[in-house]
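Hey L., structure's done. Input below.
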Amino acid sequence: MSSPSSSSAARESAGAGESLRNSCHDLARSLARLPASIMEGLWRSMARRSRRPRDTQPPLLPPPGVPEELVFFAEFERQYGGHHPFFYGCRLAEVLRIARREGKLVFVYLHDPDHPYTEPFCRRTLCTDVLVEFLDANFVSWGAVAGRGEGIGMVASLQPGSFPFCAVVSPVSDESITVLQQVEGPVSPSELVEILQRTIDEQGAASRHSWPDELAAAVRASRAEEEERRRSALRLRQEQDAAYLESLRKDQEKERARKSVQEGLAKPKVSNGLRPRYPGQAAREPSKTSQTRAPAQNGTAASHRTEANTKIMIRFPNGERKQQAFHHTDTIREIYRYVDSLGISGIGNYQLVRSYPRKTYGRQQLEMTVQDAGFYPSVTLYIEQLQ
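Output:
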C-alpha cells in the first residue's frame, strides 16, 4: 500500500515529464517556422559542436556534372524509374514561390537511401498511380536526400523520428514555412492519400474561416479575371488557327486552278489531228500516268506517317496525361496548338517545361523544331502555369 506522499510525488514527476515533452514539441514546431537562412546557420553551429564518430563516412559528393538541386531527382529516377510524382528540380525557396503563386501546399519528401523501409515505400506507395495523380493535381512536390545539400537543413528543421519521412508545409514566405502534417514510417497509398486529403480539407476550412468577406470577394474576382484571360487567349489562338486554315485553303484552290489551266492547255495538242507515232499510244498514256502517280502519292503519305515518330507526353497540373506523335520538322508552336486544342480548363497562361534536365520552352523557342529540341524518340513535357 503506497503512502499519500509517494503518490503525490509520482504525479508530480509524471506531470513534469509531460510538460517537458510538450515543450520539446513546441520548440520543434517553432524551429520549423524560422527562415531557412537562420535554420542553416543553426544547423551548422550544431554540427560544429557535435563530434562525428570515427567509423562514419562524410556525405557522398554529387555525381559529376549534376547540379546539387538535381541530385535527388537523378538518384530517384535511376533507382525507381520515371513514373513518380513530379518533384521540382530546384531549390526549396523557388518551390515556395511556385506554391504561393499557384495557391497550393508543398509536399516534402526526405529520402534516406540506406533505410530498410525506403525501397518498399518508394515502389509500393510513392510511385503508385493513385498517389502520383493525387500529388500532381493537388500539391507542389519537392524532395531531397536526408544527408546532402538542403536535405541536411530540412532534417534539422523538421527533426524526423524515423524514415520514410513526408511532410506537408505551407509557404509563409520564400524562406519560411509552417508545418501542417508529418508522416513517419511506411504507410500504404490509401492511408497516405487519406492523410493528405484531410490536411487539405482542414487547411481550406481554416483559411475560409480566417478570410474576411472582402478578401474572399477579391479572390473570386481574381479567379474570374484569370478565367476571362484564359478564354480570351484561347479565342485568339482559335482565330489565328482559323485564319491559317483559311489561307491554306485558298492556296490549295489556287494550286488546283493552276493545274487545271495547264491540263486544259495541254489537251488540244493531242486532239489537233496529229497522229501518234505508235498506234494506241495516246490511249495508253493516261492509264500509264494514273498507274505511275498513284504509287507515288501513297508512298508520300506512308513516308509522312512513318516520319511522325516522335512521341510527346504532356502532363497537366490536374494530373491528366495526353500523348501525341509529331513530325520531326514540327515546331514547338505546333505542340502549343495541340495543347490548346484539348480545351483543358484552368490552365491559363503557361509554358512547356522539360524536367530533367530542366528546360523551359516559351516564346523564344516557338520556331524551334522537334528534332532540334532533342525530343526524338520520346519526351515528357509538363505544363507550368504563369502569372
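Confidence is low (pLDDT under 50) at residues 20-61, 270-305. The chain has three domains: 17-210, 222-262, 310-385.

-- N.
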